[in-house]
Write a structure and sequence with these properties.
Length: 165
């Protein structure tokens, strides 16, 4: 590896370390990965998987539900492991041992509950905006709007600081 490439790699790693300190940036990066998953699943499901009962030009009801569901699981996982990794989790035991599957599932349910407003907002906005523009662009705009409510709700409820006692 050349000195220039190594220097570029070192600078990129330093930038990532610096950005790690900003929770909303981490949330945004996780959201960006969820957006990629959402759009990829939406397109694949609407154009190929569900094309027999969601033909091109029709509303992507089932495809959109699947896309939102998979993106939500992705975002929960990465937000828990990275964005809010410094906080004691609401459903974790007070002991330092590994969190059980039951606790993890309980927190996923809490995350999904906290995100329902954003999910409903995204779904409704996408379907409404799809009357005026391509469904993929409509979904992207709806995702951006819904992300603000998702961050606030999850920061204040799902991943809020917990007292240890």
């Amino acid at each position: 590896m050349s000195a220039t490439a190594l220097s570029l790699q070192e600078r990129l790693l330093r930038l990532i370390d610096w950005l790690h300190g900003f929770r909303y940036v981490r949330f945004g990066l996780v959201g960006a990965s969820g957006t990629v998953i959402n759009l990829a699943v939406l397109y694949t499901a609407h154009e190929f998987l569900f094309n027999t009962f969601e033909p091109p030009g029709s509303k992507p009801y089932f495809s959109l539900a699947l896309a939102i569901g998979l993106a939500t699981i992705n975002n929960f996982t990465w937000n828990r492991l990275w964005t809010w990794s410094d906080r004691q989790h609401a459903t974790s035991s007070q002991r330092e041992d590994a969190i059980s599957k039951r606790h993890l599932l309980a927190q996923l349910v809490q995350y999904a509950t906290a995100s329902w407003i954003g999910i409903a907002l995204q779904y409704t906005l996408t379907l409404w905006l799809a009357h005026y523009m391509h469904y993929m662009l409509a979904n992207l705009i709806a995702i951006l709007i819904a992300s603000v409510s998702n961050f606030i709700t999850n920061d204040r409820w799902t991943f809020r600081h917990r007292n240890k006692g």
